[in-house]
Amino acid sequence: MSRKTIASITETVAEQLLGLNRRLAKLNRSNQYRDCLQLFTQIHSSQTPKPDHYTLSAALTACARLRDVGFGSQLHAQAIQIGLKGYPHVANTLLAFYAKAEDLESVKWVFGEIENPDVYSWTTMLSACAKLGHEEYACEVFDEMPHRDLAIWNAIITGCVENGRVDVGFDYFREMHRMGIRHDNYSFASVLSVCSWEVLDFGREVHLLVMKTGFLGRTSVVNALITMYFNCGLVADAYKVFEEVEDMVYDQITFNVMVDGLVSVGRDEEALIMFKEMKWACFLPTELTFVSLMSSCSAFEVAQQLYAEAIKLGFGVHTSVGNAAITMYSSCGDLGAARLVFQRLQEKDIISWNSIISSYTQGNQGQSAILDYLQMQRAEIKPDEFTFGSLLASSESIDIVEMVHALVSKNGLILKIQVSNALVSAYSKHGEMDLSHLAFEQINPKNLISWNTIISGFLLNGFTMAGLEQFSKMVISETWPNVYTFTIVLSICSSLSALRQGKQVHGYVIRIGLFQETCLGNSLVTMYAKCGVLDWSVKVFNAMIERETISYNAMISAYSQHGQGEEAVRCFEAMQSLSKVKPDQATFTAVLSACSHSGLVNDGTRIFNSMVNNYGFTPGIDHFSCIADLLSRGGYLDELETMINSKHLKAHSNMWWSLFSACAVHGNIRLGRIVAGILLENEQNNPSVYVMLANIYAAADQWEEAANVRELMRRTGTNKQPGCSWITS
């Protein structure tokens, strides 16, 4: 064969291989990684052309994206066998492959065999070490490097902050600045996006540096700044950054950051407005946009519109959007819609199953939650701590709790503190405090939720002293109580009238700077009132920086409990004069009760009419009972009879008893006889009805009628329980 022919064939093979390599690269760019590996297999199995270093690098890239460790390891062996691992881009692709596979030892091995690592090699090595939890080793490697360019600085900073070592990442950022190395958008975005309230001053300094260096025109930096201010709860500052930059800087991510940030601080309506602005700016919503909005939506009409638009834009088949829709519909109380979305999901992941099980938990449908768990098992989806947490929260019997306890013990998930805490809560919910306490004692180490759960369990089951003992142990364990802890403990002190312990808790609250919390002020007002120290209730109430409806309800109830009806009415009138605080139905119950106990008929009827006419509340049983008691104490029996017989009111037995007692006090025989007949229709075996009616007749000197009632009581076999004393001689 002539040299010309050989050269021609060689050139043809080279062109053929070049074309194949281009096809491999194109498949990778279009995310068709499986197709890329299939093509590589065909090339490898053919006689010609033989794969070269570019072919191998493309196949390794596909393996890295797919995290196909088996195929990638075979490619590594082939690279060694045919001598291609010495090519820099093959070695770097191997580094990237093992980094994606989270195989740090192989990353170190491949890196160690590279004779002259380039910037990509160092960057990949540092990122892999930091992201896989070996940030100390990454820092050692970084410190030993002879030359560090911007990409390497960014790699170590990003690796540290993404692995939770924010302080170390910030230190490298400062050192970079001191050495005069100019930051870029990646440097700024890395540190700004993880700034929280504790390091806000540092974040503001970086913000000024961004403005000074002209990077406020880079979208990634703007997005990171907005994220920082939302992380710190500074919504106004986030809006300011968003509004100050030019429209051309915005992208879909910018709007997503705004939507997600507004949702995170509870500004759901503003998030929806931002969603509309996003569309007006001609940016199509993304998958993340719908996930953020759906996660906070609890209005059914809005939920329907969001899900319809998600389907319209083709996101209905996305599992993450479907999962968010399940949560959204369950928040709206429509479990049927949540179930329908779940059934339509083509690919269900662990979050899908957890979402539907959690939905049934919120809807108090424990049986449905168990059935879905069994389906989940049949689908061979492995449950996690969130699955079992939901099952325990929805458990309808102690048998279910014990079954879940056995399952989590078998698969080792009982070591997850979320599961252990859920077990403590579930046992206490079913009144099994011995088992609850046993589960609690087996938690090691215990977190704040563990302590709060066991203390609230003792309170709910009536073991109040045990709850106080657990709180004392919690303080000794140096676990820092939170607002919820103090609320539980103050409730225990209230139920025990434990003034000394209540004062100690009050001092503790002041010492750690939580007194400004409104809910704790409310609890303290109630605690002092229940302990009989009204003056301290008033002092706490007056010292509160912010007062809400519950605060006024607590103070009005305190006055009521101590028989100071006029003060309760004055407190109610002061509340009415405020624009931000509005009375609710509990407010009216408290103030009407105060009027009843103090005999303030005029004030009580005026407030009752105001509740209906000015505030538009429909009176409940409690309100009518208070008014019935008020009118009966004042002797307004005819008015009370008219109210009870009204067609708009279905009288409760408490009202009839109030009227019956008033008949006895005021000697109204006619009405007493009628009320007794009504009470006996519902309470035939209640001896108190017979005794009180006989007493009404006796008080009016109608001894024969009184004797007839007692005879009727004897014939029906109704006996009054004789009195007894706990005091013995």
Outline the structure in words:
The chain is an all-alpha fold. Helix content is 73%, strand content 0%. It is elongated and about 130 Å long.
Write the layout of secondary structure elements.
Elements: H1 3-29, H2 33-45, H3 53-66, H4 69-81, H5 88-100, H6 104-112, H7 119-131, H8 135-144, H9 150-162, H10 166-178, H11 185-192, H12 200-213, H13 219-231, H14 235-244, H15 252-264, H16 268-280, H17 287-296, H18 300-312, H19 319-331, H20 335-344, H21 350-362, H22 366-378, H23 385-393, H24 398-411, H25 417-429, H26 433-441, H27 448-460, H28 464-476, H29 483-496, H30 499-511, H31 518-530, H32 534-543, H33 549-561, H34 565-576, H35 585-598, H36 601-613, H37 621-634, H38 637-644, H39 653-666, H40 669-682, H41 687-699, H42 703-715
Helix pairs in contact: 1-2, 1-3, 2-3, 3-4, 3-5, 4-5, 5-6, 5-7, 6-7, 7-8, 7-9, 8-9, 9-10, 9-11, 11-13, 13-14, 13-15, 14-15, 15-16, 15-17, 17-18, 17-19, 18-19, 19-20, 19-21, 20-21, 21-22, 21-23, 22-23, 23-25, 24-25, 25-26, 25-27, 26-27, 27-28, 27-29, 28-29, 29-30, 29-31, 30-31, ...
